[in-house]
Q: What sequence folds into this?
């Protein structure tokens, strides 16, 4: 990215007033849906994907990718998104992963057979 692109992106990002924000955590990524207002009080949406990574020196940094979505494009964007999501769901169904805390009763059979019951009254 050229320096002037960086400067313009930074000034454009700071120009909008924050109106509403909704973070969505999804595994290693977090998505931010931010409603901002222009100087003329016209709303627009920014969608930011943020992914944490570890630098070589052990510090954390974040890769961020941002989309600016203006209200005149909402309908076409939503229709396109819905179409491709539906296509993916039909061609490659999503299998939800549900994490459950392991319990003592849920130990694998092999682990349970490593020990024998001892009746301390008989000792």
A:
């Amino acid at each position: 990215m050229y320096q002037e692109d960086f400067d313009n992106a930074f000034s454009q990002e700071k120009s909008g007033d924050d109106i509403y924000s909704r973070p969505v955590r999804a595994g290693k990524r977090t998505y931010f849906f931010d409603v901002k207002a222009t100087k003329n009080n016209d709303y627009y949406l920014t969608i930011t994907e943020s992914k944490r990574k570890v630098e070589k020196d052990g510090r954390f940094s974040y890769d961020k990718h941002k989309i600016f979505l203006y209200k005149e494009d909402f309908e076409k964007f939503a229709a396109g998104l819905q179409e491709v999501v539906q296509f993916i769901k039909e061609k490659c169904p999503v299998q939800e992963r549900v994490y459950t805390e392991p319990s003592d009763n849920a130990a694998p059979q092999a682990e349970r057979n490593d020990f024998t019951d001892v009746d301390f009254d008989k000792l």
Q: What stands out?
A: Residues 3-117 form a domain with the Nuclear Transport Factor 2; Chain: A, fold (CATH 3.10.450.700). The chain has one domain: 3-117.
